[in-house]
Records
---
Amino acid sequence: MEIKTLKEELNSLAYHGRGVVIGKSADGKKAITAYFIMGRSENSRNRVFVEDGEGIRTQAFDESKMTDPHLIIYAPVRVLGNKTIVTNGDQTDTIYELMDKQMTFEQSLRTREFEDDAPNYTPRISGIIRLENGDMNYAMSILKSADGDGSSCQRYTFAYSNPLPGKAKFIHTYKCDGNPLPSFEGEPKTLELPEMDIDSLTNLIWENLNEDNKVSLFVRYIDLATGKYDSRIVNKNK
């Protein structure tokens, strides 16, 4: 399997859409996740990330310019006990609520499908990190249309036990730019996760996202031994 650096991968496309990165730090001591949003329309670009309890939510940067909050305003990150949920939509709440009722990550997402934004049918991408016994495992999911046909939903879940230090998986909504936008294809991509502190990694990701299209970025380091975390938020709108 091809392994790319974050810099290489982020520069490979002008428009990834939304992206989730999950992995283990090179020293094996931390779970790392990042979530970013990009936008092409004024409505999509008119957003910021803000803290919300142990997670974050999106909100309009300029309320007067928000034309449609549907699919735009949601909580990308929530924490349920020893689990951190990261998604590109309100399925964060679905996963949180149903896993709190003892359903699994995969079962929770069987109640959802891709976004209703024809003709793009934007995939719903989701990730979950579970801390246990000083280590981590994680899973990623994508719910997407069948080759752009909105009458059929395809659901894929990828689970990672005993993840290797210094490696991360990356999934994003779109294969590339286009009209309509083609959905992501294949398994999540494998990326190198270099040994660096949270500020350095945040800067690396932010600086290598397309300048015109990037909107907001969230990065979190979670200590595997204690569950304590450190987070960063970067917003283009200030």
---
Amino acid sequence: MKSIEATGKTYDEALMAGLAQMGLPSDKVDVEVLEEGTKGFLGIGAKPYKLRLVKKDTPAIRAEEFLKNVTSMMGLEVSLDIQENEEAMLINMQGDNQGILIGHRGETLDALQYLTSLQVNKGGKEYRRVTLDTEGYRAKREQTLIALAGRMANKVQKSGRRMMLEPMNPYERRILHATLQDNPYVTTHSEGEEPNRRVVITPKRG
């Protein structure tokens, strides 16, 4: 439910009744006072408080609700640390069995990141980039890819033959391209269709 009306003898009583009915904490709703309550005289003529509670709808709340629901269905209990600005949102998940959320070579994490991005940007005019991480996986994977790029570039330089790497997602391909963009001996480009698009490292001529 997106909004309800709640009553109580006091503001706090009405608020707690409404929150209980919606199953939400106070920071997830906007509250409008419809009628001010009065105590009356010796209880005679007393009027209850009447409030309207409206569920907040922000990108961060949509991301949190989506991830909480998905991880719950996966049998996982996670806590979320969400940091955001107008252009980007970084979400770090913490909890047990986070390897399940990462998946093979980060495939599960990438899928969750894509689906979370759809929720965050639903109905928005400006696109907000979403990065989903757990256990520092993104940073570790980036360092692995940077090292891989260096090794493969050396092999291509020594052999003089181009080398095609394993299929990678756009995020990982960008790391490889960026790592080797200033390399004096090789160039990079991508070939193939998603999800089998690969980075190709080619020796520079001349």
